[in-house]
C-alpha cells in the first residue's frame, strides 16, 4: 500500500520531469474549454457576489491602513466631508466604471490631505505638489483667457 507521503513524492518527481508535457496539455484544455470555463466563473461570481464585495471592502480597508494610516471609516468620513466630490474640481469623475478616487497625501509627512479625481491627482503629481507652480499655472490661464477675450 502506498502512503500519502510516498504518493506525494512521486507526484512531485513526475511533475518535475514532465513539466513541459503537462503545461502543453493544460494549455490545450483551457483553449478548448474557454467558453464553458468563462460561464462557470460568471455563474460562481453571480452566486458569490456578496462575498466578493466583502473581500473588496476588506482589502480596501487594509490598503488604506497600510498606505495612508487611515481606516475605512476615516476615508468614508473624508468623502462625506467633501460632499462625495473631488477636493479640487468638485466633480464625481470616479462615478464611471474603473475610475476610483485617489487619496491625496503629503509625500514628505504622509499626512492625508483629501480625496481627488484622477485628473487632479495627476496634475498635482506633475507639478510636484508645488503651490508656486500651481499659482503660476493659474496666472498663465488668467492672462491667456483675458487675451482671448472671454475673461473666464
Strand order of the largest sheet: 1-2
Tally of strands: 2
Residue share in helix = 55-70%
What's the alpha carbon Rg, rounded to whole Å? 26 Å
**Which stretches of 5+ consecutive residues score pLDDT under 50?**
none
Number of helices: 7
The coarse silhouette is elongated
Class derived from helix and strand content? mainly alpha
The profile of the biggest β sheet is:
2 strands, antiparallel
Terminus-to-terminus distance: 86 Å
Summarize the helix and strand pattern as letters: HHHHHEEHH
Fraction of residues in β-strands? 5-15%
Compute the average pLDDT: 92
What would you say this structure looks like, in words?
- The protein is mainly α.
- It contains seven helices and two strands, in the order αααααββαα.
- The protein has helices spanning 4-17, 19-32, 34-47, 49-68, 72-81, 118-126, 131-148, and strands at residues 102-105, 112-116.
- It has a two-stranded antiparallel sheet.
- The protein is elongated and about 85 Å long.
- The N and C termini lie far apart (86 Å).
Q: What keywords describe this structure?
A:
2 strands, elongated, two-stranded antiparallel ribbon, 7 helices, mainly alpha, 152 residues, single chain
Question: How is the secondary structure organized here?
Answer:
Layout (H helix, E strand, L loop, with lengths): L3 H14 L1 H14 L1 H14 L1 H20 L3 H10 L20 E4 L6 E5 L1 H9 L4 H18 L4
Antiparallel strand pairs: 1-2
Amino acid at each position: 500500500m502506498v502512503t500519502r507521503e510516498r504518493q506525494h513524492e512521486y507526484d512531485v518527481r513526475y511533475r518535475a520531469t514532465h513539466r513541459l508535457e503537462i503545461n502543453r496539455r493544460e494549455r490545450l484544455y483551457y483553449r478548448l474549454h474557454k467558453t464553458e470555463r468563462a460561464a462557470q466563473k460568471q455563474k460562481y461570481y453571480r452566486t458569490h457576489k456578496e462575498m466578493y464585495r466583502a473581500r473588496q471592502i476588506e482589502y480596501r480597508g487594509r490598503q488604506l491602513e497600510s498606505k495612508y494610516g487611515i481606516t475605512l471609516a476615516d476615508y468614508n468620513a473624508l468623502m462625506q466631508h467633501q460632499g462625495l466630490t473631488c477636493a479640487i474640481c468638485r466633480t464625481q469623475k470616479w462615478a464611471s466604471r474603473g475610475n476610483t478616487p485617489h487619496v491625496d497625501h503629503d509625500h514628505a509627512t504622509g499626512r492625508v490631505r483629501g480625496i481627488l479625481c484622477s485628473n487632479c491627482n495627476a496634475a498635482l503629481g506633475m507639478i510636484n505638489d508645488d503651490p508656486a507652480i500651481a499659482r503660476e499655472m493659474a496666472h498663465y490661464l488668467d492672462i491667456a483667457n483675458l487675451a482671448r477675450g472671454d475673461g473666464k
